[in-house]
Amino acid sequence: MSSFKKAIPKRKYRERSQPAHRQHLGMLEKKQDYKLRSEDTHKKEKILKDLYEKVQNKSPDEFYFGMQNTRIIGGKHRKESQFIEPEKVKKQKILDGNLLNMKVMNKISQSEKLKESLHLIDAPAPNKHIIFVDNSDKLETFDLAKHFDTVPELINNKSNRLTVSQLSSVKLQEYPEPEGYQELEVLAQEEKIVSKSLEKNILSRKLLGKEKYKVIDEEKKQYKWFRERKR
């Protein structure tokens, strides 16, 4: 029965057109057109209502720093273009450079104090062990590990060089690295970061100077300064 209903022809839907005496008014507005126009109208009315409430509730003593650099241009609030004099920029760069330089010196002093407290940091090398051979041919084939009866990993350990027999009887244990060494690595990384910032600051100050320079590579920040002849 359902398939028979589908076979029955239906009247084609046609929308009502604009009457002839109203053709000069354009197309006849349908419900979907009216709905879009209505939503747009109510949206604008809500915006105007919110703005009116803001104006009514605004405090006359309200202030924020953005007001100093904002002006009404063409009915809209726009920020004025802020121009800072080169001398002020250079002065601020000098202050930043002094602060960065102080931080670098502080990191270096902290590292030096920490090295003094840690064990065997930058300690002088022990006495040299000189081995004499008969001729130069034997020197080329000389094996230090075989001579000292130890493994190649302990050749440079002159203070406590264990032999192969001692290593087989001794049970080695792994000891965690002391906290001071980790702190020393952190200080080294921080010093490296601050030093890079200081280098950038010095370069920017140099670019603001009166010395003539040539741009070699803009991405890599490579410049060449021309040396002026002093009379």
From TrEMBL:
Keywords: Nucleus, rRNA processing
Protein's name in the database: U3 small nucleolar RNA-associated protein 11
Signal peptide start and end residues: none
Subcellular location: Nucleus, Nucleolus
Known role: Involved in nucleolar processing of pre-18S ribosomal RNA.
InterPro entries (alphabetical): SSU_processome_Utp11 (IPR007144)
Ranges for region Disordered: 1-24
PANTHER family the record matches: U3 SMALL NUCLEOLAR RNA-ASSOCIATED PROTEIN 11, U3 SMALL NUCLEOLAR RNA-ASSOCIATED PROTEIN 11-RELATED
One GO term of the biological process aspect: rRNA processing
GO cellular component: small-subunit processome
Pfam family, one: Utp11
